[in-house]
Model the fold of this input.
Amino acid sequence: MLRAGKLARKMHGPDAHATRGTMSIEIKMPQLSVEATEGLVVAWHAQVGQAVEAGQILVEVETDKVILELEAARAGVLAVQAAEVAQYVRSEGLLAVLAEPGEDIERVQRHYTGRTGGQVHAESPLDLLCPLGDEYGEVVHAIPLRGTRGLIAARMTRSIRDFPQYQVTMDCAAEAIQELRKGLRRSQETRGISLNAIVLKCVAKALKQHPIVNSTIVNGTIYQLAKANIACAVALPEGVTSPVIRDVGNKTAAAVSLELETYIGLARSHKLKPEHLHGGTFTVSSLGSFGIRDFVAIVVPPQVAILSVGSVTSEPVVRDEKVVVGKIMALTLSCDHRAVDGAMAAEFLKTLHDIIENPASALE
Done:
């Protein structure tokens, strides 16, 4: 799970509780996206009755593929814990109440007696009892569709169900991009540049020529974006996350490679922040390291397209009327037909094909 930076939420009006002319503060489960309908309490860093300082971390919660540290907006005393560790709480549900110094804690607690804050339930062995019949045999492991897996399930189901999608595929000769990478690695300044970073630079150049592919659909309107903010899918044990490299077209390949490496490290150490995951205009997913030649990815709304990049394979090809062994990279573009028609997708993929076969042009 990814770990985000600190987040403080101060509630006013109907979400606050007044006691003897003072104002207590409710800490609620954040909702970072439409699909994130609940969050998991990971750890408490303060106990009921404990005095806390402004900025002190009160609780860690998991929501929208990140772990958030919720902190005290001001000094006070933790009066109520409305949820326990390992308990799911609905988005905007009550987590805790912070009383002002000197406030009647028991009175605050009586006010909140019986309020569960929209708790869903904690995971327990009983939740994982198999409903399947004996003919299925022994269950090795049961994984609830909650948290990250639940979020992935909700987003991908919504994408496939609600948006018309199709795919186009094209093979590229990969000798030039491999040779370019080898040449860059001979220099001390560019030796760390990855093949994926060069592909991202090629994609950014193609998106500039076909801005309709670099679009989002929000509230029935297609917005074409000037900058290529490319989300890069990263596989983790608990699910896929996609940190965003912003304005790829205006960064050097070395800068893109370093940023990509940094984000992969942050993802694997659970230290990505919410801002690292939002604002993507296009997504690239690669399974090349797994030896997958080609595959189909699902569009991530509100984006309108996602590119699947396969491994570089050795295959027989015809060049100059001769059959030779060539290096091939398969590209598959999945599109939302509401914004990108088939001819548009074909034109984009042909442009990308030509750039990958002449990749030095993307680094200029």
